[in-house]
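Reopening this one. Same input as before:
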Amino acid sequence: MKKQRATKPNAPHRTGRMQPVAAALPKITAKAIGKRGFAEASLITDWASIVGPELAAVSQPTKLSFTPGERTGGTLSINVQGGVATELQHLEPVVVERINSHFGYGAVSRLRLVHAPSHRPPPRGRAKSNIPKPLNQTQRKALDELLRDVEDNDIRDALARLGGAIFKQDSSVKKS
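Same output, byte for byte:
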């Protein structure tokens, strides 16, 4: 006669197949994130969508603290870099509103800004330059030809900038 093993009542159910890591992640990180006052990890993971990619690149939420016995009206500590603290201080009402709409209730009432480096790793790869490359000679001639009948200088300049941007994106224009 075979003995049956006693299973624990809270033991995870084994399915016999692989599960995505994302399915287990909330259980794995709950204890560590809970120590920082984050009831939900979504504030950290969705930070870029809450405050925007520009602010998210130079700021990071670190702790959400409440008065004892409360789960509303908390203070969110945010690590910020450089002069972003001033900008974030001016945007505090908007950021608090976005955070609370993310949670669906008034979880945060104020921000505490800490001048410290973000814990985010620096982006990999070479940084892209924001300086546009000038048009080549063929593109410049084609654009001048298109705009030769425009009499107003301001309108011609605006159309030249627009045309230049279009030429830069258009791969059908030959580059010399």
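So the earlier flakiness isn't reproducible anymore. For the record, The mean pLDDT is 76.
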